[in-house]
Each structure stands twice: as C-alpha cells, then as structure tokens.
Amino acid sequence: MKHTLKYSFSFFLLLQFFVAQAQETTTKKPETNPTRSTEQLLPEPPKQVTKKLPLEKKTDSIAPKTDRYGLRLGVDLFKLTRVLYDTNYKGIEFTGDYRLTKKYYLAAEIGSEEKTTDDDRLNSSAKGTYLKAGFDYNAYQNWLDMENMITIGMRYGASTFSQQLNSYKIYNPNPYWGEVPAIPSGEKFSGLTASWIEVVTGVKAKVFNNVFIGFGLQLKMLITNKQPDNFENLYIPGFNKTYNGNFGVGFNYTVSYFIPFYKKKTKPAEVPNKTTKKK
C-alpha cells in the first residue's frame, strides 16, 4: 500500500508538470521581425497622379532698344571762325535734320555768305543766301542707347546772290611797258541765281546729353548758273569757288542740339535655340 501511494503521487506531479508546460507554450506571444519598422507596417498612402504639361518653347531674346525721334539744330563753326583768319569772308550757316526712320533723316542747311575774290585780272565780291535740302542715311550700327552717326546723303542747293565788280585789269599780251594798273569799277549785278546737287558724307558724335559735334565733306556739281555779261561768277554763296568749272567742294564743322519728340522701341532680335539633329 505504501508503494502504491508513492507511485501515485509521482505520477500526479509529472502530470502537473506537463499541464503547466502546455499552458506556457499556448500563452506565449508570437515574435515580430525586429528589422521591420512601424512605418512599414502601416498601409501605404495612395499615389498621386500628376499630369505633365507640355513644355513651352524658350527663345533667347535681347532686351528691346529704344530709339529717340526728333529735330536736331546746329550751326557751322567753320564759317563762324573763318572770319578770324580771312578778312575777305563773312558767313554763317545753320543746319538741321529730322529723323524719319531708323536709318533715314531729312536734312537741310540754310545760310548767307559774303566773299571777296581777288583774281589775276579782276576783283569781285559775291553776296547772297542759299538753301540746301535732302536726306542722310546713317550707316553706323549703334550699341545700346548710343546715337552716333556716320552718314552719306544728297542735297539739292539753290542760291540767290549779287556780284559787284570792284576792279579789273586789261589783258596785255606784250607787257613791254610793264603791267597795266587795275581799273576801279564798282558795277553791281543783282538777281543772279545758281543751283547744284551735292553728295555729302559726315560724322556726328554725341558728347553730352543731346549735344553733338560733327564734320562733313561735300562734292558739288553745278546744274544752272546765271552769270553777268562781263565776267564769270568766281564764287557762289553755298556752292563755294568755281575755279574748276562746274565742280566744287565744301567742308563744315558743326555743333548741334537734339530736341526729342518721342521714343520708339525697336523689335528685339530673337535667337532660336540650337538643336542638334541626329542622322
């Protein structure tokens, strides 16, 4: 009997051990992967679908440049200062130009001259006024807001004047007894006219705000020339000397002031993008 209780008690303890072990395995929590973060366990948000807009064609362009349009008035300093070294000359000339387009200008000159010419056979004085009108073309390409000019153009000129024969000498082919003295005259001829065309070229540079200085050269050819009966016109106001027949030359040195009327924007030059085509 004693041995029977001993074995029964041992079997009961062994049965309790297996029951406790079974409960421990059923209540144990499943292990989680330590490498996975909590963010990965959350559901992923829905992806946003964005529509792609068509790309605009980009063109490189230069900033627009503004050109000024107006009237430029000036005076010829060469004629004003000539009286300082030439006692036989008096004269003044006013110049002007008006900008029509980007390159073309209306141009004109008006003035008066009085010149005494002392030739080998006669001494005469010419006095009168003249007007020249035409156009100029600016061949200079300015940068940014520069307004310099290198011009070439044409003029039509007309002059009304008078001639006075101061003295003359009689031609003597055999001056055995010496040169014949000059004979004073004082005869005056009025109502004389002349007209011509000229090709002009010049330069104008902006030195201060609206102030320009420039110089020009003229090559002239007479069209009409009304002369006295007794002698030729040796000097025509506005045309200059006539010693070389119907051709003459001129020069001026001007200072002028520009009066702006309005501004005009020029169209910017578009530069297309460079694209390489694969063959």
Description:
The chain is built from three helices and twelve strands; from the N terminus they run ααββαββββββββββ. It is mostly beta strands. The strands form three sheets. The protein has an eight-stranded antiparallel barrel with strand order 2-3-4-5-6-7-8-11. Strands 1-12 form a two-stranded antiparallel ribbon. A two-stranded antiparallel sheet has the order 9-10. A hairpin with a 3-residue loop joins strand 4 (104-118) and strand 5. It is elongated, with a radius of gyration of 51 Å.
- State the separation between the terminal residues, measured CA to CA: 110 Å
Q: Count of DSSP helices?
A: 3
Low-confidence stretches: 26-30
Query: Biggest β-sheet: count, sense, barrel?
Result: 8 strands, antiparallel, barrel
Strand order of the largest sheet: 2-3-4-5-6-7-8-11
Shape: elongated
Overall pLDDT confidence: 81
Structural class by SSE content: mainly beta
Can you write the helix and strand succession as a string?
A: HHEEHEEEEEEEEEE
Our estimate of the beta-strand percent is over 45%
Helix content: 10-25%
Please give the radius of gyration in angstroms. 51 Å
The beta-strand count equals: 12
Notable traits:
279 residues, mainly beta, 8-stranded antiparallel beta barrel, 51% strand
